[in-house]
Specification:
- The complex is a heterodimer of chains A (268) and B (266).
- Chain A has 268 residues and is mainly α.
- Chain A has 12 helices and no strands.
- In chain A, helix 3 packs antiparallel against helix 5 and helix 6 packs antiparallel against helix 10.
- The longest helix of chain A has 31 residues.
- Chain A is globular, with a radius of gyration of 19 Å.
- Chain B has a domain of 57 residues.
- Classes of the chains: A mainly alpha (268), B alpha/beta (266).
- At the A-B interface, helix 1, helix 4 and helix 12 of A face strand 1, helix 2, helix 3 and helix 4 of B.
- Chain A: One of its GO terms (cellular component) is ATP-binding cassette (ABC) transporter complex.
Chain lengths: 268, 266
């Protein structure tokens, strides 16, 4: 296969995911409503109780709405990543995952295409959300909206790879509810998405430690800093390393010779 | 060649070398075994398929047909035995091997929200085709299957039989040498089933594609077909319909299937 063929494969997988997204308008609305409710209702209500002091990367005291936006961007990506993995379980049950896996490209490449496709869909949602937030008054420097893109790709790959890895363990769609309870919610709430780490530390040192170890915290901080034209080196490195590890594990899990596919065997 | 659950006696001169087999056979499965949780699913399965050959893989439910398909498509990896597609080892040269096979799975796998053209374009991209090339081949394959007017239709608006034909068009889009069909008529009415079986036989004759058609339905076997009977994970008969009937002293292929598997004819 030539490089051009690889490019056509990538175009096909990303194009299909975007087409599916366009056809499923309710999914788009649902994906936007969740963070917007947090922004318009939760943040407005808790602004006084959870007021945030001046903290990096912000240059001045900020409103809670301003603080929460990068976390909600991460929320969109996290839920979208899990939605993608849910659709992988569904595709596997329905059989359409097989169409992808019998394609004459290396399986690692096909999985990366699939991850990139899911990430692109999430990025479209993120930018629509950021546009609404901008109109609402949460305005980052314009260059920040460009610089945030690599951070969104890394985060998209990180949560997508996690979802892909989890999907390899989940045999039935019904079991996916557990993923929501045991993965998505703890990852989101035990992070700096809603409160800064220093404030969590004031409340509970144990929760602070868990949040500091949570890779999603680092992804959110990476997004927050790039949005304000700064680079948080440690957060970026942790996010990149986590992405690499999760991606490797996800590829391994879908390798017919070594991963879950091999262990599951072939009963009829 | 009838195995009747035993090894067929052969002389050294009868047995082709691995190189000879791989040159002539589009699909070459040798000594394939597979177990799940210690339970054997397939045991020493061996057969070959040549270009233009249409073989029906007959077996009762649970015989191991779907597992065999999953191994040939490398959804599961085999640890015992070898599988070559177009002379390429499936484990070591999976990219080349996959490029030569088209697959129609037991479950419908078309995206119902997309049009026929979009589904086929997606498949073309998965085989490295340009959009233009995929469009051209899609039109060609759909015309052969009398589906040329369906390109712009959403899949959910097609009947079960039409969807299956689109899946066959998809399986042939990249012009494979081997077409694998895993019980493709499940859920179809008698007319649609008959049409589909006829289509696939015609494609095999006209395009020289080797076809492996898994089914448990005897009426899908044509007199000129080769029949491979799989039962309890083993091949218990492999030959032309006439040969299998003669060697099992049966009056029909249904009788032969019953004798070989102690099963019910569907």
């Amino acid at each position: 296969m030539s490089l051009v063929a690889y490019a056509h494969c990538l175009r096909g997988v990303v194009g299909r995911e975007l087409l599916r997204f366009v056809h499923q308008r309710s999914r788009f609305v649902a994906a936007l409503v969740r963070p917007l409710v947090w922004l318009f209702v939760f943040a407005a209500g808790f602004r006084m109780a959870l007021g945030v002091a001046m903290t990096e990367p912000y240059q001045t005291y900020i409103l809670y709405e301003v603080y929460i936006v990068p976390g909600l961007v991460g929320m969109i990506q996290l839920f979208n990543g899990m939605q993608s993995s849910l659709s992988m379980v569904y595709d596997r049950e329905m059989g359409s995952m097989r169409v992808l896996l019998v394609s004459p490209f290396p399986r690692w490449y096909l999985l990366i295409c699939k991850l990139l496709a899911g990430t692109m869909v999430a990025i479209v949602q993120v930018y629509v959300f950021l546009a609404i937030a901008y109109l609402y008054g949460v305005q980052a420097p314009l260059m920040g909206y460009v610089l945030i893109l690599p951070a969104l790709i890394v985060t998209g790959f990180m949560v997508g790879a996690l979802g892909m890895l989890l999907s390899s363990f989940v045999r039935q769609l019904e079991n996916f509810a557990g993923i929501m309870n045991f993965v998505i919610f703890p990852m989101f709430f035990l992070s700096s998405a809603l409160y800064p780490l220093w404030r969590i530390r004031e409340g509970s040192y144990l929760v602070y430690q868990v949040a500091a170890l949570n890779p999603f915290t680092h992804a959110v901080e990476m997004i927050r800093f790039t949005m304000y034209e700064q680079l948080n080196v440690s957060a970026t490195l942790v996010a990149l390393a986590t992405t690499a590890v999760l991606l490797g594990l996800a590829i391994l899990a879908y390798n017919p010779a070594r991963g879950m596919a091999a262990r599951k065997g072939g009963g009829e | 060649m009838i195995h009747e659950n035993s090894e067929t006696p052969s002389t050294a001169s009868d047995v082709p070398t691995a190189g000879e087999r791989q040159e002539s056979a589009v699909l070459d499965v040798q000594d394939l075994s597979f177990s799940y949780s210690g339970r054997p699913i397939l045991e020493s399965v061996s057969f070959e398929l040549k270009a233009g050959e249409c073989a029906v893989l007959l077996g009762p439910n649970g015989a191991g047909k779907s597992t065999l398909f999953s191994l040939i498509t490398r959804l599961y990896d085999h640890r015992q035995g070898t599988i070559h597609v177009g002379g390429h080892d499936l484990r070591r040269e999976s990219v080349q091997a996959h490029a030569q096979m088209g697959v129609v799975f037991q479950q419908p796998t078309l995206d119902q929200d997309l049009t026929v053209a979009q589904n086929l374009a997606y498949h073309g991209a998965l085989h490295g085709m340009t959009p233009g090339e995929a469009r051209r081949r899609a039109a060609q394959q759909l015309t052969r299957l009398d589906m040329q007017d369906s390109l712009r239709l959403r899949v959910r608006h097609l009947s079960g039989g039409q969807r299956r034909r689109v899946e066959i068009a998809r399986g042939l889009l990249h012009e494979p040498r081997l077409l694998l069909l895993d019980e493709p008529t499940v859920g179809l009415d008698i007319t649609s089933r008959r049409t589909l079986v006829e289509h696939v036989h015609r494609l095999s004759r006209e395009q020289g594609v080797a076809v492996l058609w898994a089914t448990h339905l005897i009426d899908e076997v044509y007199p000129e077909d080769r029949v491979i009977v799989l039962d309890h994970g083993q091949i218990c008969a492999d030959g032309s319909v006439a040969d299998v009937m003669v060697q099992t002293r049966s009056e029909s292929i249904g009788d032969a299937f019953n004798r070989l598997t102690d099963g019910e004819v569907s």
